[in-house]
UniProtKB/TrEMBL annotation:
Gene3D superfamilies: FAD/NAD(P)-binding domain
TM stretches of this protein: 256-274
SUPFAM superfamilies on file: FAD/NAD(P)-binding domain (SSF51905)
UniProt keyword annotations, A-Z: FAD, Flavoprotein, Membrane, Monooxygenase, Oxidoreductase, Transmembrane, Transmembrane helix
Keyword Zinc recorded: no
Cofactor(s) required, per the database record: FAD
This protein's name: FAD dependent oxidoreductase
């Protein structure tokens, strides 16, 4: 850990930095690599609220937890995912993150148990002042320490780690069995030979069903109000030609193809929704057990990619439905009672355990209270510059991945842009940079997310906005965004300042 000598000769951790990165998940580790690669003389650290690196992959421990994007693009460009399986388990992703942090000497920059609760930009100092809660550690009480940094990069993800989304489920308090949210799965939950109901239709529910069947659940029923589009992704081994090609070429080829093909599929869904819906439903029909009805359980009430497309490796979700222990019910909840769930149709689902896989609690900027010279900044009233900085907030980069592709593709374009901004600032003697939007551009507002999932719609009012032109537009797709991160005009929509301190 970086530090400085104190009067008694001991080393005390430094609290003054050129760059501070908040969060040590995929985004934070990626940003750290870009900073140390492009800004080798910068003093930086990563502040992590949890006890270890990993973010999502450290917290989520429900059965079968895995990526909902392929690892060839969810993984890092600078340290490619070498395994042949594109969808990876949570444990293997954690191993990959730890290996990456060790390989590139990033782990020594991470300060775990450091939760940033407030950040105030001080114009007089041209720096961010951070209130950081540290501990409690061994023989240590929790304390608040002040950190200072010229640049602040937020790699905090998009949801709350402290509280899941609370779905409105009538009568849930009446249930006498156990209620579990996947975000806080009990370590020793005993569900063997028991009846479970999983409420939800997203990636978590699609993951849970086959994992629960494989690990001995008595029966599990997925209860969904409306279905999702689901697509099987083969976990195939190396192609025949790969043994004849150099590894660097194979890895680059896979990353390129796993970026290009999902992008083409996305635009196919957007511009030809009826054809895309028919195509996806036909794929599902081929994989379902012969006597399993396609409708209504696999007939979503929205067009493909209006909500995130769910992936399942080798069709494991469809296969588990043939086991006789996994079921799907499409209905709405009338009331939860002591021993199960009464449905609007008049049917009842008996349950020993209810799992509320109803989504995440969307949260921007990690819940950190942001202010400028002591005045609170209302994030929802701000606009996003190149989907990476916010108006009113100098020297602050917020990493947002893609809604409709791998998160890391978007976080990497943002990190490349941040180091370019910092380098330009250092080379030209600027002390700060802040996005400024014209009154004309403020008039045409676009939502930051194209998706209409419940957990996103419920938080749209708390999200910053985008515009319809120039640097205020939402992201297009990776190849264009990567080019803009490396080549865009750094004066377009930005105000640079030189202030003596």
């Amino acid at each position: 850990m970086d530090g400085h000598a104190t009067a008694n000769g001991h080393t005390s951790p430094s609290t003054h930095f050129d760059v501070l990165i908040i969060g040590s998940g995929l985004s934070g580790i990626n940003a750290a690599y870009r900073v140390q690669e492009s800004l080798p003389d910068s003093n930086f650290a990563i502040l992590e609220a949890r006890h270890e690196l990993g973010g999502t992959w450290s917290q989520f421990r429900y059965p079968g937890v895995r990526s909902d994007s392929d690892l060839h693009t969810l993984g890092f460009q600078f340290n490619p995912w070498k395994a042949s399986n594109p969808i990876a388990s949570g444990d293997s992703i954690m191993e990959y993150l730890n290996d990456t942090a060790d390989k590139f000497d990033i782990k020594r920059k991470i300060r775990c148990g450091h939760k940033v609760v407030g950040a105030d930009w001080r114009s007089s100092d041209q720096r961010w002042r951070l209130d950081v809660q540290i501990g409690p550690g061994e023989g240590q009480e929790a304390q608040t320490v002040v950190y200072w940094t010229k640049w602040l990069i937020m790699g905090t993800g998009y949801y709350s780690y402290d509280a899941p989304m609370q779905a409105d489920i009538p009568g849930l308090q009446n249930f006498k069995g156990q209620i579990v949210h996947p975000q806080y799965w009990p370590e020793n939950l005993d569900y063997k030979d028991k009846k479970m109901v999983v409420i939800g239709s997203g990636a978590t529910a699609i993951t849970l069903l086959p994992a629960l069947v494989d690990s001995g659940v008595g029966s599990v029923t997925q209860l969904q109000r409306s279905p999702s589009y689901i697509m099987s992704l083969p976990q195939e081994g190396p192609a025949w030609w790969e043994k004849y090609a150099p590894q660097w070429f194979v890895l680059r080829y896979k990353r390129f193809m796993f970026t290009l093909i999902p992008t083409l599929l996305y635009y196919f869904c957007v511009y030809f929704p009826v054809r895309a819906s028919n195509f996806l439903r036909k794929q599902v029909k081929r994989q379902l057990p012969a006597d399993f009805p396609l409708d209504p359980h696999f007939k979503p009430g929205y067009s493909p990619w209006q909500q995130r497309l769910c992936l399942c490796p080798d069709g494991d979700y469809f296969k588990c439905l043939a086991s006789g222990r996994a079921h799907v019910v499409t209905d709405t909840i009338k009331n939860v009672v002591a021993d199960g769930i009464e449905l609007t149709s008049g049917n009842k689902l008996d349950a020993d355990i209810i799992v509320t896989a109803t989504g995440l609690n969307l949260r921007f900027l990690g819940g950190v209270a942001l202010s400028v010279d002591g005045k609170k900044v209302d994030v929802a009233s701000q606009h996003l510059w190149r989907f990476s900085m916010l108006t009113s907030l100098p020297n602050l980069g917020n990493i947002i991945g893609y809604w409709n592709a791998s998160w890391t593709l978007g976080s990497d374009t943002a990190s490349r842009l941040f180091v370019r901004l910092i380098k330009h600032q250092n080379e030209n003697g600027y002390t700060s940079v802040v996005p400024e939007i014209s009154e004309a551009d403020k008039q045409n507002v676009v939502l930051a997310s194209p998706l209409n999932s419940t957990y996103i719609k419920s938080k749209l009012d708390s999200m910053p906005k985008c515009g319809t032109r120039g640097p205020w537009r939402p992201r297009d797709f990776y190849f264009v965004d990567k080019w803009r991160a490396e080549k865009c005009d750094l004066n377009d929509g930005l105000k640079w300042k030189k202030v003596s301190t």
